[in-house]
Design goal:
single chain, alpha+beta, Jelly Rolls, five-stranded antiparallel beta sheet, 16 strands
Length: about 475
């Protein structure tokens, strides 16, 4: 099962996931081998490493309560005994950390993340870059996202999010967790999904399997509730690296006698989704989003709830490219232009942000499909899309949710169409719109013959300004 998932990629990573996978697998094995105290100790180590692993101890704690032949009182005593061993292990290791470092929580405190430029370097303009004047503050002292009206945001914690945004993200993540393009179980851990479906639909179903499914379900809901915009492990992850902690549970709910179905389906899914990753593990680790730029993964939905942290956006040329005055000037009291926006380029169907005759936009790659997410500062009432034909002209399909149009243009000819999109997905007080474009013709770029052009696309927005 492990070999038919993204797990082998992480053999070369300096992250705790494989270590935790081993601890949890060992703990569950010890439990099934009737050595529950050893199992509690091993899972306790995993809880110390990542407190979210606490839910994986659920089978150990609940099983005695279901053993009616031993009586309720004896079952409760055994459950408490196992819980005490787990708790003592966690407390002992946190105490040891406090004694050595002076801090109880080794994962707490503040840190910074740097993109593009790093302390000790200089900008092209000659400005010295220091730790203080660059990077973005991060902190892990807060459990779960900051919520407006409940938590106080600072420059070191990042902005708080509206409660409605977090609620909408939760419902989207219910699906993204399983079928998302960058972290979904379907693409990166298909044998576990196959085992789960076979267990629930076909059977046979045993008590051990039900306990494992319960632990998986609780962990799943906890992850997407507590870390709605980073439940898969950050922009550098390939697949959901946190799911490696949950993967050992799948061995407990593989239906007896159906193992070959799980193995066969895992092999097939691995050929479809994982061969490009596992064939070049170092390259894919260094460019964590490249495998999703093309191929079957593009069929799966991108996890908009984690937009800024998706693996494809470790390439800054693809991420949050501004069109118009998106920032304003806070020092002079100038607000941002409400009709300005950012674009996120999800694949190689475009040549990214460019300008044509002084107008910002992007070139579609000739005869290619493209997905671009538009992040608007205000809710969009309508978007006017202007298409200018490339050297061979073009026929372009435009789709934004249910809104769609087709434009045909000759070489150098410009035509516009206005789409009225559905309500955008709220993300950090902005609004996301998923655009799909399809170029039908291609010709070499006269300036760069190595690349092909379809048509040049510009977007102008009509927005409904909100009271501020």
């Amino acid at each position: 099962m492990l070999l038919a998932t993204v797990t082998p990629l992480y053999l070369g990573w300096y992250t705790p996931e494989l270590f935790n996978l081993g601890l949890i697998a060992g703990g569950l094995w010890a439990w099934r081998a009737r050595r529950p105290l050893l199992g509690a100790f091993l899972i306790g180590l995993a809880v110390y490493s990542k407190p979210y692993n606490l839910w994986l101890a659920l089978p150990l704690g609940v099983e005695p309560l279901l053993a009616r032949e031993k009586g309720w009182a004896r079952g409760l005593l055994e459950s408490v005994r196992r819980g005490a061993v787990l708790a003592a292990t966690v407390v002992a290791f946190f105490g040891l950390n406090r004694a050595i470092t002076g801090e109880l929580n080794y994962q707490g405190g503040e840190r910074k993340t740097f993109y593009g430029h790093f302390p000790g370097e200089r900008t092209p303009e000659g400005r010295d870059i220091t730790f203080g004047n660059s990077g973005q503050w991060m902190t892990t002292d807060q459990l779960g996202p900051l919520v407006e009206g409940r938590d106080e945001a600072t420059r070191r914690t990042g902005p708080a999010r509206a409660a409605g945004e977090i609620r909408d993200s939760f419902f989207r993540n219910l699906g993204y967790f399983w079928v998302g393009r960058f972290g979904g179980v379907l693409a990166y851990f298909f044998p576990a999904l196959a085992a789960l479906l076979l267990f629930l639909v076909v059977g046979p179903r045993e008590r051990t399997g039900w306990l494992a499914v319960a632990a998986l379900g609780v962990s799943y809901l906890f992850y997407i509730k507590q870390i709605p915009d980073n439940w898969y492990g950050g922009g550098g992850a390939v697949g959901n690296r946190y799911f490696l902690n949950l993967l050992p549970l799948a061995f407990l709910f593989v239906p007896r006698g159906r193992e070959w179905l799980v193995a066969a389906s895992g092999l097939l899914a691995g050929i479809v989704f994982l061969v490009p990753i596992l064939r070049h593990p170092v390259q894919r680790s260094m460019s964590a989003g490249d495998h999703a730029l093309r191929g079957p993964l593009r069929v799966l939905p991108a996890e908009l709830t984690m937009l800024n942290d998706l693996a494809v956006f470790t390439d800054p040329a693809r991420k949050k490219r501004p069109y118009g005055d998106t920032e304003g000037d806070p020092h002079k009291g100038w607000p941002a232009d409400p009709k300005s926006y950012y674009l996120y380029f999800f694949d190689d169907g475009t040549h990214l942000r460019e300008e044509r005759e002084g107008q910002p936009g992007f070139w579609l790659r000739g005869a290619a499909r493209a997905e671009v997410v538009l992040r608007a500062l205000e809710p969009v009432r309508a978007m006017t899309i202007t298409v200018t034909g490339g050297p061979a002209g073009d026929r372009v399909g435009l789709f934004c949710g249910e809104a769609a149009a087709v434009i045909e243009v000759a070489a150098g000819e410009s035509r516009s169409v206005t789409l009225e999109p559905e309500k955008g997905f709220a993300y950090y007080d902005t609004f996301l719109y998923d655009l799909r474009l399809r170029s039908r013709r291609a010709a070499p770029d006269p300036a760069q013959p190595s690349r092909t052009l379809g048509s040049f696309v510009r977007i102008a927005l009509q927005v409904d300004r909100r009271p501020h």
